[in-house]
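Quarterly update from the structural biology core.
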Amino acid sequence: LGNLGATETLDIDDANVLTGTLSENCVITMPSGLTSGVAISFSMRLTNSGAFTATFTGVLWAGARAPTITTSGVDWLTFVTLDGGTTWDGFISGQDMS
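Predicted structure, tokenized:
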């Protein structure tokens, strides 16, 4: 994905592992319009080049709390949907990878 701007829409048509770098605060729109009734997942390696935030739209997190992205570090996130991308379950796979 390269550097992520203020808003980004994710596309997983060609890949199930995405990489991107936060270079400013970013609102990330999840993929939608996918096949419903089957599990679809992807992982994202997210690098934070500063003290930026990432807000993921349509994602349910454990305890209804989105994770805090590591400041100036690398996090892995995994997302799963069963309803074609209407809602996504989000998980921190690894945080502050170093």
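Strands lie at 2-4, 7-9, 17-22, 26-29, 36-48, 54-57, 59-61, 74-83, 88-94.
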